[in-house]
Amino acid sequence: MKTKKNIVWITGLVVIILSIISCNDDLDRATFFTTDEMTIIETLEANPEIFSSYIEILEKTEFYNSLKSYGNYTCFTPTNEAVKAYIKEKWNVASVSEITNPEDIEFLKLIVKFHTIPTGRLTSGFVEGRLADTTYTGDYLTTSFLKGGGIANVEINRGVGLDEYDIRSSNGIIHALDGVLSPFVDPVPVVMEKAGKHTIFVEALKQTGYYEVFSVVFNEFGSKNNFTILAESDEVYSQEGINSFEDLANLLSPGDTDYANPDNELNRFVGYHATQNFLYSRNFPDDAFVNTVLPRNAWKSFKTDTELRINETETGENDTWTSLIIEDSNYPAKNGVYHTVNKLFTIFTPKPKHIIFDVVSDQPEYQSRLIRRNQNVPSTAWEFIRWFPEGNKRYLQQSNRVNLNNNILDVGGYAWIEFDTPVLPKGKYEMLISSNGGNRARAITQIYWDGEPIGSVYDLTLGNSGKGYPDEALMESRGWRHGYRCITNNAGTSQYDVAGASRFIITKELLCPEQKRHVFRMEVVKAGGTPIDYIEWIPVDDNSGPDDSECYND
Amino acid sequence: MKQNIFKIFTIIPVILMTLSSCTGYLELEPKDNLTQQEFWKNKEQVSAALAGCYGSMNQAAFTDKVLLWGELRAEMLVSVRAGGNQLNMMKNYMFPSNALVSWSSFYKTINHCNLVLTFADQAQAQDLSFTEQELNRIKAEALTIRSLAYFILVKNFKEVPLILTSTSNNQVDFYPAKSTESEIITQIISDLEFAVDDLNLGFSQSAAHDKGKMTKGAALSILTDVYLWNEQYDESIDASNRLVNLGKYNLVDGSEWFNQIFFEGNSNEGIFELQFDDIFATINSSFYVGNPVYAPFDGIIDLYQEFPDDIRANYATFGSPENSVFKYAGVDETGRYRAQDEFYNTFIFYRYADVLLMQAEAYILSSNNKDLNKAYDLINQIHQRATGVPLNVPVLENELLNALLLERQKEFAFEGKRWYDVLRFAKRNNFENQDLILILAEVKAGPDDLEQILSYYSDTESYYLPIYQNEINLNPNLRQNPYYEN
């Protein structure tokens, strides 16, 4: 009996002790971090003398917790004085807490989004031009070194300086700003008009109706427009003896005041000043044409080792090109950017040249990052690509792809697909196309040029023997050519050595009697996948040697 | 009871044993190494320590910086396959975490010298065969090496901690702050002026000893350079004249310019050259023709076209069409190159031509001893030796200065001098000639980055390097140089 009592007591004691011990869980109710580095928010909070006002804004706009989360953000963070000055000017209040109007809070949200980029960017990545990624408002921030003095004097959006930079935290980079960046709201012409250096050009925009055209931020399909406008400043005009809009109009279209008419010379002149490609100065292509808003025309962009030359005539004379006045260029707006050219920028008629048209990378939607890789979109999302029947398609991009710019347009299940080509200067060309072929599931198509069938069928199912690969002469006789040696993937494999990337010779004699954009269409003979890489036009010149497949820049 | 007594008898000896045995056990002298107290006992040990000072310079961590700090920010070299840190330095885009600015190898050398200076006296006291004269000579060599290291630091960082005592125990200040430029230069000058008297005129064992060790000539060359950097032109003239009056050095003949000075090394013209009995890694990895990191900038090759007979042109200074730095990588004027295992070059810090041109510069700029004709003669000596024709410039201050800078560029191409030459010319009278540096941006820019590179070169504070971030993290008293404070 006594032992039984003891056992009960002992068991009870053990149970109590066990429960006490087991409950004492060290891990309870604590938050754990994979790093003891501070987050962006913790870093800001650790420096209230600089960042307390911005913290208040973050709390007010409910972005406070987002910047605690996992990620790698770039936060441009205005200092307390900067915030104070900004809200004083905008709302005439002394502190963030006084802002209560819901509309104003919406605007504060816009400001925070405009100051945040989803990828971490250190100042070492800053260039003269735009940053590589857009902010959460979908805009590019620009960085400029024009003030001199290195990184410490960089200006963001040509107006705001860095107070402290490259402050690292566990989920991103903080750059403290000595001012608040004003979110872009105005389209390019409005920004240009407000800046006041291009009054004659702005007047020409208005008189020709392009002011409204270039002020459209979203097109009819809902995607964002991006215009790049090259404008002469009043100073440049005055060097040419043009001191008013009338001078300009008299020079270009004497006697014809119907400026809104697309055939009017002034109208054409203004249309030629813009493109729908999104080009900061450093984004101008090394050697290529840029289609202009004026139909059937293009700028010829060429970079030497040291400078950008636009519309260089190939006469061998010096200084026949136009370039940008960098101090007055790279001014951003909601729907694009404008630059100042250094002389009167007249319509240029280029000579035929080798043109490679990357069906993905040369699209404005790609350049402004509206459409990203692997993103399935309807054909209406692309302005210059159409297909039928309607269905979402995507492009693929990965550094291991042996393709020009490592991307292809991945289409299948279509009856036809067509592209608006770049502007081709008039002349005679060979036309070739490269896709990833050599597989029985691929398509066989007939190509149409401006509505007319051209060349034999494009058979992507052909294997090596069918093309005659790798014997160059045999391939040529069967209408095929090796890919380029200089188009490689990250492992160094070149198109020349990949049978599937061989170029199909659509025709050796394509006559283009006038300079314009054409329609390139593929109609299905046998359905299948068609990963299209690029289409190219090689001028047929009696003097030129055989294409050696080294590189397309030769 | 009997048992207890037995226990006590065993316990007491055990206790006694443990007590006595402890003494030897507590001695913590290492058995496999010499300690400070055991070293520094005789002449040979001090000589060995001095050899350590030279040895510490004789490695890539040191020579890489001597070469790259002196060249990359200027316009002489372009990259073939340089790394990111080097490319950034070529654009003068410098930031504190760029490992290329680490000065630790220089302070290692400085500490080696400080050890010799601190402990040589006690060794001499213990070694009867160690004469006062030898002691002074050894200390003077250490002082001269230390001065050279500090001078390189001051040219690159402007302000650095001036450490004159050795780090041999834990009583020293591990957190020194920076000294000013003038404090450091004053120290260098007084050390060198003191050392000159005690240094040997030369060493007879071999040319390698003679050129590879610090001599009167070496100290006077550094002095000439320091005075010139510090805009003390009369003192610079005096120091260089003292060197000329040693009568020991002369210019080699033009026809032997490449062969004797650079291929064979240790020429009559050489004053101080680091000796490598092994492959000279810095030069080998930077310029070996089979796989160079750097190549001459195109514009440099054009410089030599002005005089068709310039013996410093192709297959002397540079190699074309290989586009190589032939001065280090070549063998002879037929265009033969050193194989990868033949880089037994010396590294020339000073040679007679350099001293003559520094003297010319001082004669042009001095107000008390200004002598443009003398300056012309000096520049002309170098010019005529190389080109065979007399220098054709008017004997006017500005014309001579321009001719001098150009002559230095051609004569000392790739010898780690160009950036300091440009900076010295630019910084006179409060950066009166900043343009000399700003035009470098145009040489370096591509079509998209002129503004950016110009911006990196625009602030005169940026001509001095940042202190390496590690040093800042370790030493709370060290303040980052002004341009790099963030």
TrEMBL record, chain A:
Protein name from the UniProt record: Fasciclin domain-containing protein
Recorded superkingdom: Bacteria
Organism of this sequence: Flavivirga aquimarina
PROSITE patterns: FAS1, PROKAR_LIPOPROTEIN
Pfam families reported for this sequence: Fasciclin
Residue span(s) of domain FAS1: 38-181, 185-345
Entries under PANTHER family matching the protein: FI19380P1, PERIOSTIN-RELATED
UniProtKB/TrEMBL annotation, chain B:
Pfam families: SusD-like_3, SusD_RagB
Chief site of localization: membrane
Subcellular location: Cell outer membrane
Domain SusD-like N-terminal stretches: 25-228
RagB/SusD domain: residues covered: 345-484
Keywords of the record: Cell outer membrane, Membrane, Signal
Family listed: Belongs to the SusD family.
Name of protein: RagB/SusD family nutrient uptake outer membrane protein
Organism for this UniProt entry: Flavivirga aquimarina
